[in-house]
Amino acid sequence: MTDPQTPPASGGRSAAAGNSSGVIATGDRTRIEQRTLVLPPDALKAAIHDEEIARLSNLPAPDSRVFKGRDDALAVLRELPSAGTGIVAQSVRGMGGIGKSTLVLHHAHTYLAAGHGPVWWIEASSSAAVTAGLASLATALNPVHAALPLDEAAAWAVTWLQGRTGWLLIFDNAEEPADLRPYLGRLSTGQVLVTTRRDLPWQDLGTPVRLETLTPETALAVLQEITERHSDSDAAALAELTNELGHLPLALQQAGAYLAQTRTSASNYLAQLRADPAGVLAATAPGDPHQRTIAQLWSVTLSALNSADPHAVDLLRVLAYSAPEPLPRRVLANALHTHQAVDHALGVLAAYSMITLTDATVTVHRLVQAVLRITTPKPIAPPQPGAIRRLLRRSRPTPPPHPSESALKLLHEAMPSSSPDDVEGWPEWQRLLPHLQTVGRHQGGTRLVSQLATVLGQAGFYLLARGQADQALPLDKRALEITEAALGPDHPDTALRLSSLGRTLSDLGRYAEALPLEARALQIAEVALGPDHPTTASRLNNLASTFSDLGRHAEALPLAQRALEITEGALGPDHPDTALRLGNLGRTLSALGRDAEALLLEERALQISEAALGPDHPDTALRLSNLASTLSALGRHAEALPLAQRALQITEAALGPDHPDTAVRLGNLGRTLSALGSHAEALPLDERALQISEATLGPDHPDTALRLGNLASTLNALERHAEAFPLEERALQIAEAALGPDHPTTANRLGNLAFTLSALGRDAEALPLEERALQISEATLGPDHPDTALRLGNLGRTLSALGSHAEALSLEERALQISEATLGPDHPDTALRLGNLASTLNALERHAEALPLARRALQIAEAALGPDYAETTVRLNDPTPIRAPLEDTTRDEP
User: Fold this and answer.
1) Of 257, 605, 611, 741, which sits 20 to 30 A from 91 (CA to CA)?
2) Beta 168-174 vs 191-196: how paired, if at all?
């Protein structure tokens, strides 16, 4: 797509002119979709007037006045159809330095000058960058969005764009199709351009505009324009130089800027390039000739930089191991001998167009970083113990740190002092996250093992706290590998990494994989630190939680008890960690049906958390939620309700509306409302909880199964059984796959599916599910557990529905006996058992025996739930099995 008759463009971000309105998307397989979005009046408002919106843009200024050789490509962009045709997304593809961004920037400036707008430029190298770019548009339209979480502001921007035409949106440097997939199909009322160097099957993008290198004639014209050297004597040398540069626009711009600034002849520049090819062509360099020639260019540029300020080159090599996203300048404060030296070096780099510099951030282009990493010698591997002794005998000086090690050290020092789960520090952690991840990927034989493991582990911990366990997993795995290799399998730091990895696996629902890691972490801590160390208590706590996740509550109980005893003895009765241990022990006791014992622990845990951490801390919300669950288990739903409401309010404010913990709080509140008969109020909470869990944890996570089950229970209570049925089927399928066929949660799923089948009149299909659910509960929880009573009662009701009243009678009598013994004579579940038993006796024509049971059931229900709800709860002749509401349980942080 070049035109030798037209002057070519030069520069990585040069701008060209064009006339087209709409959104420009660069990438393959552009698909244009037209949708109509119906919004209520004034649902979306910008804080600026329409005429200002039409002029709104964040386009960078062109970095070169020369733009040639792209007329054909510009014509394609100008001819993009307007919104409403079904095709609005277009990609521009090519290698790094080919001029993709320059082409689109040139078109965008012309588009804006023609009176179209807004035009918004978004760095799309990661999903986080895309979210931030959309959020910045929202803030530009209305500054109030600066206070919102980035994902909320981004969502607002997308919705606003859907309700308006005539805009142009540019996703620049897109790397992964998945980063744009959530947006492209929805952004159909304007035009989108995507630039990408990745030749992948991008959905929602049609036939791409593929940019190739410039023709020799156009490349020569570019250099002549930039250097203002048009004489015949210069032409031959410049032509030879363009051939050496591979006619790559970015390389031409860099070379032309160097020649113009230094007044160096093209012949001298060419001689330097040819004299140092090996220095820029490392053995690991890809075979792409274009990348090879741009590597040569930067070798020369680095030589010039070295003459101007050697520290600038040192600093640039360090920056090569950060991410191609804005790096806070404070990270580089100690990169050189003085702060002034750092500022001066950054100024030199900016003058040579090697970085983008603001008062707060430093950004290096990804291609510059790639070339620098290729041309930097590999780090020296740390010597083995025997080699250390030999080096000492030879008295050799310690080699200087490799740039990757310097970058690691700087980022390690720059990490916030606050814990990654402290929400107040999250903005700073988010700014550093891409750089922490990048520096970790480029550490080979580093001597800074401890710092590397810490950087990886803390980045993983931050992602885990944000509910992104899938992204935390590879970081935790690598941190463990590094630590174990460097410090040995029995070091306390190895135990820490094992426990962190176990926690992440548990958050992903992979409890069976987490268990041996947690067990080994405990073993190491007990040997290395002693049986009464607070860290040992933490390892006990985590192992107990994993046992509970696996449904092995009896094995978890002594571990949780011992963890509490150690923590209270070492840290005191009012320490936040003591509250955490109390809460975990309480949840274990509740799982064992010992809710009355759990209640006292949960109340004390809440009291400690509020006093130590404050009323609005996420841990306080956790304590409120657990206490509410325990109260509900005791049938005290009215007392649980305000606690569950407050827990949700705190969690949403602290962690955001889309965090997995917010889904837990929504689910708990929904269950409490349903227990009080407010099923219509519970329904939207259950729906939202499911939506969050699926988005953050995935469709196959055990928590997603829990949300499906809760939503189905609410639909059943609303007599919407046909809608509940597929949800219950899917919930059972997930639970069996994730937790196994014999897990207590699988029993819950079987029982709930059986209930829905019975509600649909399919009792014969429900019967084997109820029988299997009872078998699992008795085997895992014991014959006297409240859940076993629930299974007995439900199986009895199904048998009665099938006419087997005599067989049902013994099951319901046993269910009542268990409920009275474990929950007490006045618990709502005891009322359910009485009511079900009375129904069976009536079916057997034993009405005189049934009547006092029915009266007592109604009396208990009225006292516990109120007269209105009691009448609908205790329906003496209803063949439908009555079951207790499901609860969400939360797992405390390690």
Assistant:
1) 257
2) parallel
Q: Are 20 and 81 in contact (CB under 8 A)?
A: no
Cβ neighbors of 609 (< 8 A, separation 6 or more) are 576, 579, 617, 619, 620, 622, 623
**Cα(836)–Cα(853) distance, rounded to whole angstroms?**
9
**Nearest partner of 140 among 124, 160, 165, 114, judged by Cα:** 160
SS3 816: helix
Residue 661, SS3 per DSSP: helix
Widest pairwise Cα distance in the chain: 119
- CA–CA dist 836, 857 (Å, integer): 9
- In angstroms, the CA 410 to CA 458 distance is 15
pLDDT 10s digits, 258-313: 777 777 788 887 777 666 533 333 322 233 344 444 555 456 567 777 887 889 99
Convert 381-417 to b/e letters by CB count within 10 Å (16 or more is b).
eeeeeeeeeeeeeeeeeeeebbbbbbbbbbbbebbbe
Nearest-angstrom CA–CA distance, 856 and 24: 72
Q: Helix or strand or coil: residue 807?
A: helix
- Looking only at the bridges linking them, the beta strands covering 168-174 and 119-123 are parallel
733: which residues sit within 8 A by CB, 6+ positions away?
A: none
d(CA 588, CA 598): 8
How far does CA 567 lie from the centroid of its chain? 32
d(CA 625, CA 884): 18
Residue 399 DSSP code: P
pLDDT band for position 391 (cuts 50, 70, 90): very low
SS3 category, 107: helix
Single-letter code of the amino acid located at 831 = A
Residue 230, classified by CB atoms within 10 Å of its CB into exposed (0-12), middle (13-18) or buried (19+), is exposed
Q: Is 331 within 8 Å of 363 (Cβ atoms)?
A: no
Residue 742: strand, helix, or coil: coil
According to DSSP, residue 173 is labeled E
Three-state DSSP at 119 gives strand
pLDDT tens digits for 75-134? Answer: 888 877 654 445 467 888 876 677 888 899 999 998 888 888 899 999 998 898 999 999
d(CA 567, CA 619): 17
Contact (CB, 8 A) for 786 and 829: yes
Model confidence over 438-466: pLDDT tens digits?
988 887 666 788 889 999 999 999 998 88
Amino acid identity of residue 828, one-letter, is P
**Residue type for 579, please?**
A
Strands (E) located in 697-755 = none
CA dihedral 596, 599, 604, 608 (to 10 degrees): 160
